[in-house]
């Protein structure tokens, strides 16, 4: 299999696609990103990496950060997290409040916004926001084996000023006793977490700990990695998770910045980025690209 050639052909194909999706505009700093950009990067278990397109352009990883936050929170409190967050797909948009009322402030899973806010609230416990974010950044930099990964403060501030739905979710959960900190403290941390910026090549490297490959340095136990992957395939693309599993057949986590981290267990960590989104809020061309990659490599787990 010539992976370099496969990535090259995917990148060429994506460049000719007229429908590029629509960039997220509810976060003002993301509304002005050029939707013509595309990058894909693959890290294999033997340590080789192949990248194509705009793979060194930095972007806002947004909800892809929820995977790193979940790994950190599980490391801190273990299965206790599941007393506050569920493990079921929601079938609702990532920022929906609907089920939260029916289910008394306990979010369906750690990847929808409400669940991610509780996850942040968990790793914040006993720390200042700066310390908590410092711990998260240490984890991400170690995973990527790259110190040059930072938080884009202008994106975080842009969302603090406009993130009214997330404030509503946080206050609602607080009213049910499912938030331990003041909403502005937890959300300040959450928005900065979402504003982590990295490029596609760095993101593919940062995902290697989820491959469960015996050849790579382990950051989490194999059991925990397996479970995070299970959550990624069932909940990682919100109400588009079934469609993604059907088309791609691999665990993935998307973000409204247009990035998707996809894991081929034991084989590869894949990052793709294209800022235009589909109606679920996941990268339109990114999904198409990993659908093609999974088909051409035979990496689907099904
Ligand atoms: O909280 C938000 O709405 C954003 N910071 C993250 C949402 C997101 O990335 C959804 N992903 N597709």
UniProtKB/TrEMBL annotation:
Subunit note: Homotetramer.
Similarity comment: Belongs to the glutaminase family.
UniProt EC number: 3.5.1.2
GO BP annotations, alphabetical order: glutamate biosynthetic process; L-glutamine catabolic process
HAMAP family for the chain: Glutaminase
Superkingdom per UniProt: Bacteria
Name this protein carries in UniProt: Glutaminase
Catalysed reactions, semicolon-separated: L-glutamine + H2O = L-glutamate + NH4(+)
UniProt cross-references to Gene3D superfamilies, sorted A to Z: DD-peptidase/beta-lactamase superfamily
Keyword annotations of the record: Acetylation, Hydrolase
InterPro entries assigned: Beta-lactam/transpept-like (IPR012338), Glutaminase (IPR015868)
Acetylation in keyword set: yes
């Amino acid at each position: 299999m010539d992976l370099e050639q496969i990535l090259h052909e995917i990148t060429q194909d994506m460049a000719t696609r007229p429908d590029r999706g629509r960039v997220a505009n509810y976060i003002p700093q993301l509304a002005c990103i050029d939707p013509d950009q595309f990058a894909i990067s693959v890290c294999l278990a033997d340590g080789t990496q192949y990248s194509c397109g705009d793979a060194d352009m930095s972007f806002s990883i947004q909800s892809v950060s929820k995977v790193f936050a979940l790994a950190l929170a599980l490391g801190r409190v273990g299965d206790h997290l599941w007393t506050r967050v569920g493990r079921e797909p929601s079938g609702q948009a990532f920022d929906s409040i609907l089920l939260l009322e029916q289910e008394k402030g306990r979010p369906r899973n750690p990847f929808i916004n409400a669940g991610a806010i509780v996850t942040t609230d968990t790793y914040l416990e006993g720390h200042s926001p700066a310390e908590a974010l410092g711990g998260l950044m240490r984890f991400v930099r170690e995973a990527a084996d790259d110190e040059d990964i930072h938080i884009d403060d202008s994106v975080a501030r842009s969302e603090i000023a406009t993130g009214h739905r997330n404030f509503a979710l946080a206050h609602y959960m607080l009213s049910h006793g499912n938030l331990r900190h003041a909403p502005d403290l937890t959300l300040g941390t959450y928005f900065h977490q979402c504003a982590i910026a990295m490029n596609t090549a760095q993101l593919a490297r940062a995902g290697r700990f989820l491959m469960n490959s015996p050849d790579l340095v382990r950051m989490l136990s194999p059991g925990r990695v397996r479970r995070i992957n299970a959550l990624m395939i069932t909940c990682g693309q919100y109400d588009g998770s079934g469609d993604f599993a059907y088309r791609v057949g691999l665990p993935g986590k998307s973000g409204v910045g247009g990035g998707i981290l996809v894991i081929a267990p034991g084989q590869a960590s894949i990052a793709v980025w294209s800022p235009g989104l589909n109606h679920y809020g996941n990268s339109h061309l990114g999904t198409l690209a990993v659908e093609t990659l999974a088909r051409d490599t035979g990496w689907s787990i099904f």
